[in-house]
Amino acid sequence: MHTDTDALILIDIQNDFCPGGALAVKDGDAVVEPANDLAAHFNTVILTQDWHPAGHLSFASAHPGHRPYDMVQMPYGPQMLWPDHCVQGSAGAAFHPGLAPAVEKAQLVVRKGFRPHIDSYSAFFENDKVTPTGLAGALRERGIHRIYLAGLATDYCVAYSATDAARLGFEALIVEDACRAIDLHGSLTAARRDWMAAGVRSVSVADVLALAAPLASVA
């Protein structure tokens, strides 16, 4: 097992982000198996869940004359408009059914994007970069210093969460082969540049499991 100062955060592994969903990430369901494998090796597992009210202002449908993936200006800055997705209580907002082992092990679910007028990519802050979710405090109270992140999508919610984690003083590592990207207009390259500048490192599932193996064999 990883130490008690490590945590695994699984980002938005929900039906709407998987094939057939309203905002499907290509091969999004491919993260489910590695997410479960990773969760088995951490004592602290946290899930995030996109949780939008109907008519959320990040939805293109809330902006007559606009289409999904248009950029608009919000009071807090530029905002990508998305198809309606992860509406509270809908099947699309539910965790992927294959994620059940990780869901069962998770101690905390952080719901984000529930405020109607502001989106939330990061697990730590709304898109105004000021309003906190409370996750940082929860991690500090648990004595967590190092965070591994996996899930959907690499270039949006995973990248924003990892970058914020690093800026908040946590050691942040993205398990990149346990993530999948949207990659709109070079967004993955830009996200990688930003997270590297913030001090976030990329690792593989094999790297993470290898670190856990010696401790697991002693247990």
The fourth-level CATH homologous superfamily is Isochorismatase-like
Under CATH, the topology is which? Answer: Rossmann fold
Per DSSP, what share of the residues sits in E-state strands of 2 or more residues? 15-25%
CATH-level-2 architecture: 3-Layer(aba) Sandwich
Give a short synopsis of this structure:
The chain is α/β, with parallel strands linked by helices and 219 residues long.
Q: Mind explaining what this structure looks like?
A:
Residues 7-187 form the Isochorismatase-like domain. GO terms for molecular function: metal ion binding; nicotinamidase activity. Its EC number is 3.5.1.19. The structure is a single chain. It is built from 6 helices and 8 strands; from the N terminus they run βαβββαβαβαβαβα. By secondary structure, it is α/β, with parallel strands linked by helices. It has a single domain (6-212), classed as Rossmann fold (3-Layer(aba) Sandwich), CATH 3.40.50. Strands 5-2-1-6-7-8 form a 6-stranded parallel sheet. The chain has a two-stranded antiparallel sheet with strand order 3-4. The radius of gyration is 17 Å and the shape is globular. The N and C termini lie close together (8 Å).
